[in-house]
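Suppose you are handed only these lines of text.
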Amino acid sequence: MQVFVQEQGVPEELELDEFDSSADHALAYIQNQCVGTARLILRSDGRAQIGRMAVLREFRQKGVGRQLLRALILLGKSRGIVEFELHAQVSAISFYEKLGFIPHGEVYDEAGIPHRNMILLSKIND
Ligand SMILES: CC(C)(COP(=O)(O)OP(=O)(O)OC[C@H]1O[C@@H](n2cnc3c(N)ncnc32)[C@H](O)[C@@H]1OP(=O)(O)O)[C@@H](O)C(=O)NCCC(=O)NCCS
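From them, the structure of the protein bound to coenzyme A can be written out as follows.
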């Protein structure tokens, strides 16, 4: 909420959705303060979608986002997922590329912010 709704101006009704209750949520804490979060949605087609990746502004560029993303990829792989998808904000594409995600398709608008789809194909033993 603090990052997407307050910082980026995403409408609150778009931020909360029907997947929140069934998704796995990764939370990052520093000294009892939650500083970052991301979620993993397992889909019926055997793929998984990562989303709501957010780190509080003052805690960015310290490796928190990378740890959250890695944790969700490991969790998904432990459940047999080999293909992860996400809708990346264009400004975050380089962040995801560092963890192996590859952009594909056109840039499109989502919640008023330019996005591009990205995919990570991962072997179970990677
Ligand atoms: C994108 C975001 C989650 C990254 O989290 P973070 O904790 O700052 O990322 P990390 O510190 O783990 O960065 C890992 C690497 O990616 C790089 N990186 C981080 N954000 C980046 C960005 N926006 N563009 C390019 N590179 C980025 C870091 O420099 C670091 O590189 P290194 O391994 O060479 O040192 C965070 O900036 C954020 O919450 N942004 C606002 C919300 C948002 O845009 N979320 C993404 C929605 S798709």
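What can we learn from it? Residues 3, 53-55, 60-66, 88-89, 91-92, 94-95, 98 surround coenzyme A (CB under 6 Å). The domain at 2-121 is CATH 3.40.630.30 (Aminopeptidase).
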